[in-house]
Structures are given as structure tokens and as C-alpha cells.
Amino acid sequence: MAEMQVPFVDLKARYQEERDQLMEIFDRVLSSGHLVMTPEIAEFEEEVQKYTGARHCVSLNSGTDALLMSLWALDVGQGDEVITTPVSFIATVGAIIHVGAKPVYVDVLDDQNIDPDKIEEAITPRTKAIMPVHWTGRIADMHAIDAIAKRHNLVVIEDSAQCMGSYFHGQHGGTFGSAGAISTHPLKNLNAVGDGGFVLTNDDDVADKIRLKRNHGLASRDDAVIYGLNSRLDVLNAEVLKFRLTRLKEVIDTRKKHADMYRELIKTDAVFIPEDKDFEINSYVMFITQAENRDALKDHLAKKGIESLVYYGTPLHLHTAAKDQGYQRGDFPIAEAQCEKVLALPHNQCLSEDQIAYTADAVNAFYGSG
Fold first, then answer.
1. pLDDT by residue (tens digit) across 61-77?
2. Considering only CA atoms, which of 254, 313, 319 is closest in space to residue 288?
3. So what's the pLDDT on residue 262?
4. What pTM did the predictor assign?
5. Helix, strand, coil shares, percent, the chain, to 5
6. From edge to edge, which strands make up the β-sheet containing 288-291?
7. The domain 249-367 is classified under which CATH number: 3.40.50.1240, 3.90.1150.10, 3.30.870.10, 3.60.140.10?
């Protein structure tokens, strides 16, 4: 039997920690009898605006819809090209495909974020947008990306799904471009009790379009001015998120402390951990290492009672769904090599320092280090 159990996901522990506050929210909201598009939605959006500095927050039912809505509101559609990274969750490219556009990938840096130096060579007359992904909560080089977009008259839509609470040179993620899409999926730092998300934007027109689209295109109960859809965040999740927003900095600070412990305690060169830069604050939704002999390490950790996660093992251009996009293995060698090595270690805020140290010791033992 393993000496210690180290869970990857914090949801059970977090529920126990917050049970009294959550039960009060459940009781208050459910007893009100009002669950959709009540004033609580606007109150949550206002709190997010204060936290991020964005002019507008438009809440939605998922981070995926936040990407779709942003693309639609910025007139990205049939025949357009969107430059993005092959390192992300499938929702990034799925949103591009669903508006009728074509994803154009460029390779990544050692921190798994898009390489700005490779963007301009991918621009064509059909390029309409750049969609950087702030992977693990580390913000891509938005100063360089915004400068490229300005030179070429392109819109920037940030896939900020993982970066609530992340900053780059003092500016919150999702506020650099024309729109930023954030997810509140249960595995995020700011997490709902189910799916949820929102768009950050400083553009009044973009915000107005998305507010209309998310509620069936209804300007009033009996007047649909466009054909929209149902992408509303429910009131219960809005209230849970508003409560958890008050704890977000504490959650991120603890996760960063655990990440710093790993950097200090893991002694082998066989595990690469990207460093934090002085001008960035990483939300640490995930703590992703790049490990030699990754699969064997994962098995070794599992035998020690330590959960870990391959996040993700297939770059976007090599998914089965991408077979008609014209890409093949070898097109993006850095991303492909990283996907062979990525392993997320448990670092959530509910873990103890002893559990983090135990995990680091197990990594060192596997490689004969420490």
C-alpha cells in the first residue's frame, strides 16, 4: 500500500472546506424561485469587471461558448483564417471550425505558449484573427502579439480559459485583445458547480452583441432581433462564482507556493519546469512538467498513490478530426515533442506541504536523483 495518497483534483476537499457557504447559497437561490437572468447575474459580472479591470464581463454557459461568441461578435467566419497554437484543449480549434474559419497553427516556446516570432510568416490575405492560448494560466507575450495584430489589422481573441487571476506586466489576462474567453469549468481555479464561462472585452459593441446572442437574440420577451441561442450562466453558478472570487487570490497563492516547492525539491534535469518571469503572475490552473520517460514516471507515481495527468498528449493538428486540415506529424516539432513529455503533477490548494514533498521525492526516486 502507498505511504500517502495525493489526489490530483481538489473538488471533494474543496466542497468540504466550503460546505457551509455553499449550502447557504444553494438554499438562498433555490428558495427564491428565480434561476435565470436575475440581477445576481449582473452583480457577478460587475465583480469580475472590478477584479480584471475589463470594461465588460458577459457571462455564458461555458468557456467554449465564450470563444465561439467572441469569434462571431468580431465577424470571424467562412473563409477566414485564425492563427493559433497546436497546444491547447480541442475547444480552441473547435470554436474556430464552428464559425466556418480555418485554424492556422504556429509552433510554441519552451513554456508551451505560442511563439510570437513565428506568427507573421503564417499571415496570409485571408488571416482575420490571432488566438493565443494562455496555457496553464501563463499569459503569452501579448505585447508582441498585439503589435503584430496592429501592423496587419488583425483582431486578437485570447483563449484565456485558464488565466483568471493571471497578469502580464500588471494587466489581467483576457483584456489585451478585442475579447478574452474565460472558463469556469470545475477544474479551473475560479470554478462553478458545472460548466460556465464569460467573455472579457473593452469593446461596447462586442459586449452588446454577445449579450443579445446568449439569450436567443431577444431584445425583449416578444422581439427577437437576431436568431441567437441559449448560452446563459444560471444564477446558482453565478452566486457560487461570486463567492469563490473572494477566495481566488488565496487559491492561486497556495498553488504558487506548491509550484515553488516542486522547483526547489525536484532535483533531476530529466524534468523540465518552466520558470515564472518577474513580470507575470501565473494562475496555476495546472502545473505541467515536461518529463523524460513520461509514461513510466506516471505509472511509478500511481504505485506511490500519487495521481498525475497527461495534459495533453496529442497536439491539435494531429487529432483525428483535423485529418482534412492538411497538417501532418513533423509540422510543429516543438509542440509535438512537448506532448510526448507533458505530465501535470498534483498541486491544488487543498494539498499539504507533506504531500507536495512526498510527490517530489517520488519523482527524484524514479530518476535516481535527490
1. 999 999 999 999 999 99
2. 313
3. 98
4. 0.96
5. 40, 15, 40
6. 271-272, 288-291, 342-344
7. 3.90.1150.10
